[in-house]
Amino acid sequence: MSQNSQTEQLTQAGQQIEHDSFAIVDREVGEHYYSDGQWQVVRRMIHATADFEFNGLTEFSAQAVEGGIQAILNGAPIVADVEMICVGLSQPRLAHFGISARQFIADADVIDAAKRVNSTRAVQAMRKAHNLGLLDGGIVAVGNAPTALLEVLRMINEEGIKPALIVGMPVGFVSAAESKDLLAELHDVPWIITRGRKGGSTLVVAAIHALLSLAETRQKNH
C-alpha cells in the first residue's frame, strides 16, 4: 500500500496544507527539548489542537516512542477508554499493521457490572479488556476517563499486567492530573502523558497517528 494511503493526506492539496501546518508549528516553537521521535508526536498533537502548551505539557518515558513503534509493528491491539478514540483512528492505517482498536464502555455487561459494584463503566471496561487478554502487550489509550487509567495502574501493580505502551491523557477536573502523575511514576511500562488537566481523545488520536507514521517509516526503511 502507498505511503499516502497510510500516513498522509490523500490529495496533493491536503498534503500541502498538512506540510505547511507542520512547518508553522516548527517555526513558532523553535528550539525544544524533545527527541526527533518525541517531537513527531508532540507536533501532531499541537497540529490537532492549535495549542502550543503541549510543547512542555507532553512528557514521555524513556522508551515510550520505541515501545509504541514496536507494538504497532507487532500488530498489538489498541484498547481505548471511549469510542471517540476508536472512531478517530484511521482504519486504513490500522489495517496496514493488522491492528484492531477496541473499547467496551457501552457494553451491556460492563454497564451491569458497574451498577452492581458501584464503580464506573470505564473501570469495568478495562477489566473486561484484561479478561479478554488485550492489555498485556497492547497499547492502552485513555483520553477521557481518569478511572480507566487508575484501574490499569492498579492491574499493573496488583495483577502484573504489562502493556506495551500507555497513552494516558485523560482530560478534566477530578483525578485527571493525579492519574497522570501516578502513571509517570511507572518504570516498567512505557508511557506518554499530558501533565495537568488538559488532555482528551483528540490528543490521544494524534499521538497514535504519529506513532503509526513513525512505524511505517521504520517499516519502509527495513
From TrEMBL:
<comment type="similarity">
    <text>Belongs to the CobH/CbiC family.</text>
</comment>
<dbReference type="GO" id="GO:0009236">
    <property type="term" value="P:cobalamin biosynthetic process"/>
</dbReference>
<keyword id="KW-0413">Isomerase</keyword>
<keyword id="KW-0169">Cobalamin biosynthesis</keyword>
<dbReference type="InterPro" id="IPR036588">
    <property type="entry name" value="CobH/CbiC_sf"/>
</dbReference>
<dbReference type="GO" id="GO:0016993">
    <property type="term" value="F:precorrin-8X methylmutase activity"/>
</dbReference>
<comment type="pathway">
    <text>Cofactor biosynthesis; adenosylcobalamin biosynthesis.</text>
</comment>
<dbReference type="InterPro" id="IPR003722">
    <property type="entry name" value="Cbl_synth_CobH/CbiC"/>
</dbReference>
<protein>
    <submittedName>
        <fullName>Precorrin-8X methylmutase</fullName>
    </submittedName>
</protein>
<dbReference type="Pfam" id="PF02570">
    <property type="entry name" value="CbiC"/>
</dbReference>
<feature type="domain" description="Cobalamin biosynthesis precorrin-8X methylmutase CobH/CbiC">
    <location>
        <begin position="16"/>
        <end position="213"/>
    </location>
</feature>
